[in-house]
Amino acid sequence: xxxxxxxxxxxxxxxxxxxxxxxxxxxxxxxxxxxxxxxxxxxxxxxxxxxxxxxxxxxxxxxxxxxxxxxxxxxxxxxxxxxxxxxxxxxxxxxxxxxxxxxxxxxxxxxxxxxxxxxxxxxxxxxxxxxxxxxxxxxxxxxxxxxxxxxxxxxxxxxxxxxxxxxxxxxxxxxxxxxxxxxxxxxxxxxxxxxxxxxxxxx
Length: 203
Hints:
With 203 residues, the chain is an alpha/beta fold. The chain contains six helices and eight strands.
């Protein structure tokens, strides 16, 4: 699938966006804390969305563009993400239904910003519910519950970060694998396809 690469300035440095065109909607996806946009599950979601006619924007946060692996604070992640989405909605995503998503940390950012950015849905790949071995740390479930729009969670059966529960407007699809979601791309693709196809009417 062909696409173009954009650099978008934010208050925390430039973000990089890998944009694949589409006319049915715009799916904006963020990477995990220590990974990039080439993660297998992000590639699968991109391919499936493209087959359905959706445009996809894979967003590299400024800290990754700058060559750092340690993630920025949540407030900076959200601010940079918001700047990118505003720019996309003023350009290639203008007038299209918006779905936000990502894997792990990127899914958290999508949940925290979905309502303020006017998303019609959130796609969470490997949502990091509870840091492994850190029971004293608060659960991230409130972020998931706060998305406020239809949400799909695709979670590995053996994910060390735990299994998010289903809830109002939230579906959870369990696939073979761990937090990396590398094991069963066909199952991930099928889940994303069915959910995304049901979000907006067929043209």
